[in-house]
Structures are given as structure tokens and as C-alpha cells.
Amino acid sequence: MRILGIDPGIAITGYGVIDWDGGRVTLVECGTIVTHAGTPLPKRLSVVYENVRELLVKHGPGCVAFEELFSGKNVKTVIEVAQARGAAMAAAFGTGAELFEYTPIQIKQAIAGYGRADKRQVQQMVRLLLGLDTVIKPDDAADAVACAICHAHSSRFSSAFQIK
Questions:
Q1: pTM for the structure as a whole
Q2: Secondary structure of the chain: what % helix, strand, coil (to 5)?
């Protein structure tokens, strides 16, 4: 099963594509989609949408796993991140891929075995699970790969996390 993980953001959206054969995870591609602060918001959202759409066409995942938002202190930032998440979700909708969402705590639990694990612990576990020599950089790409791996590990009961 091919899975696309998305860590949404208005400035940086992380993505990670993995293959899961039921026991082994293989990294296919990961990276970031970057938009610039001086660019009008509709254009930034369009960049996220178009780039996610290109990833979907290129890799043809059966599933797309999104990291859910956590509330922050800056309401404007939370709203913009939610809009970027919506743009990525809209790009995935209708492609035939199933859409799922996981909280940061669920992702950390699935990857590190502890829902309050820090970023370094999660990155090291992702590195170990994928058999990589170094951790994935930047953090946004690593988080997206972790989200995809979380879905792979949760796939037996994934209907509980499906976006309907």
C-alpha cells in the first residue's frame, strides 16, 4: 500500500510518501512545499493545492494521512494552517485515495510508543523504522513521514480515523 503523509502548514507543508507491505516500511520520497510570507494568501493556498495534486498524480497513493491541527495561541496562524490543510485535503479529494487524520499524540504513540515523545525521539524512531543513516530533514518532512507510518501501523483499524 502506498501512503502519502501530509504535515500541513501555510509557510511549509511537509510530505512523505511510503510503501507499506504489511510489515516493512520503505521511504519513496519526502520533502516540503514552501510558500512565502509576502505572497497573497489565495496564491499560497493554490501552491499547496497544486503541489499536493502533483504528488498524488506522481505517486498514486491509496491513502492520504493528514496530521490534525492543534490549537495555538495565535488565532491567525491557526486559521491559515487550517486553510492550508483544507487546500491539501481538497487536492486529495476525488483522486480515489482514502483520507485519514491523526492527532500529534496518536502519531507520537504509533512511532515512539509514547504520546508525549519529543520531536527528536520521533525523528530517531522514523530513522530506525526506515533503516536510514540520518534523520529526515527538515522537521516538516519528518513529521509527514511519521504521519504516513502512523497510518500504516494503524491500517488494521483505520476506519476509525477515516475522513468521511
A1: 0.93
A2: 50, 20, 30
